[in-house]
Amino acid sequence: MKILVVNAGSSSLKYQLFDMQNESVIAKGAVERIGIAGSVLKAKGNGKEKVYTQDMPDHKVAIQLVLHALHDDEIGVIKSMSEIGAVGHRVVASGEYFKKPTLVDDEVIKTLEEKTFELGPLHNPAAAAGLHACMDVMPGTPMVLVFDSSFHQTMPEKAYMFGIKYEDYKAYGVRKYGAHGTSHKYVSQEAAKYLGKDAKQLKIVTCHLGNGSSISAVDGGVCVDTSMGFTPLDGVLMGTRSGCIDASAVEFLARKKGLDAAKMVTYLNKECGVLGISGVSSDFRDLIAGMEAGNQRCKLALDMFAYQTKKFVGAYAAAMGGLDCIVFTAGIGENTPTVREDVCENLDFLGVKIDKEANNAKGSGIRDISAKDSKVKILIIPTNEELAIARETLALI
Ligand code: ADP
Questions:
Q1: What is the rounded CA–CA span in Å between residue 152 and residue 181?
Q2: Ligand 1 atom nearest to 282, measured from its CA
Q3: Which domain holds residue 23?
Q4: Which of 72, 148, 234, 324 is catalytic?
Q5: Closest Cα to atom 2, ligand 1: which residue?
Q6: Rounded to whole angstroms, how far apart are CA atoms 32 and 40?
């Protein structure tokens, strides 16, 4: 069975085609600048790459071109559309409406469009556009929605509630939903497999540290808490996002800077985080180079990031009443030894001891970087959200 995974953004669309017999990627690519002059599809297949430059005014035209690329003479990997057994779509926000991956029907589309757009205003309309485009060009092929937040739907009420009026939570659905759920689920399952244990026996803290970062407590295979909140602005400071901040400070800053509420949220999302602290970059490679050259603000940004992440590790060990494993994943988690070392430093009291040499060694795949006498396993696990979506899609159909 071949499964197409589609990740549609407002002006972009990434895809991967999996052969689920061996979970290999047989084609992949990305469309950029949908609806903007200069649209382009960069597609790979058959070990070759091809660049298609043509006007793509909307997602439907983009998907048509993707399907064309999938059976192109040079880079094509399929003979007919009927070889694609199903399409898995990444959707960012589920609210409380979708607790798990969901097979698309009319009712599902109605709920997606009428209820979830305001919860994910940047991402969900794009996902719906991608969905409609696929349904138009691949009628009859099962479509599955896989939500970033559904893995977090198992959080208990005491974890997901904010301290606001209960009536307002009920009326407006304002609560913690979390994000990166597909990644947290994937790496926690991979950790259990790697350790040769049943996920049900494990208490894991998964640290998805990338441009956006979130930390989750996974107890017995299910998420019991996570650091992102109503939106992906909450939790630790990130590339350009502030992370959690006292709401009164937000109002105070808005007054001082003359920003309205919407502009203030844009400021907190785009101008803050390690970029705002360092004044140099949102990219951790630049921050490390800056720190090594003696830039104190780069060092501060890195220190804050590791400190805030460490606090979530401690908090979640307390929340779960124990800790068996810490997983580092995503761009920073997989590639930045200094962050991993700083997060694990001084956590001996929890049984966490990192092996510095293993942590600094280059490598690929899953890596165990815990010291021999560490009670807690510390693993680097490359995330693979597309494969996770393909697996969920296959399981559902
Ligand atoms: P996104 O949230 O956009 O998917 P990523 O998971 O790709 O983000 O993470 C981006 C971050 O990861 C950047 O700060 C970057 O510095 C860091 N990163 C990515 N690749 C590497 C690498 N090979 N070496 C060091 N840092 C990396």
A1: 6
A2: 14
A3: 2-147
A4: 148
A5: 211
A6: 5
- β-strand 13-19 against 24-32: which pairing, if any? antiparallel
Q: How far is the CA of 179 from the centre of ligand 1 (A)?
A: 17
Phi, psi of 287 (to 5 degrees): -65, -40
121 pLDDT tier (thresholds 50, 70, 90): confident
**89 lies in the same domain as 194:** no
Is 148 a residue of the active site? Answer: yes
360 lies in the same domain as 255: yes
In a domain, 391, yes or no: no
> In the predicted model, what is the mean pLDDT of the chain?
95
Please give the number of the atom of ligand 1 that sits closest to the Cα of 333: 12
19-to-1, 2, 70, 94, 364 alpha-carbon distances in Å: 6, 5, 13, 27, 22
Q: Against a cut of 0.90, is the pTM above it?
A: yes
CA of 82 to the centre of ligand 1 (A): 36
Q: Which residues line the pocket of ligand 1, CB cutoff 6 A?
A: 210-212, 239, 283-285, 330-332, 335-336
In whole angstroms, what separates CA 91 from the centre of its chain? 11
- Note the residue count of the chain: 397
Question: Of 214, 254, 229, which Cα lies nearest the Cα of 161?
Answer: 229
Q: Quick one: tokens of 315?
A: 């908090």
Write out 134-151 in H/E/C secondary structure: HHHHCCCCCEEEEECCHH
How many Å lie between the centroid of ligand 1 and the Cα of residue 285? 8
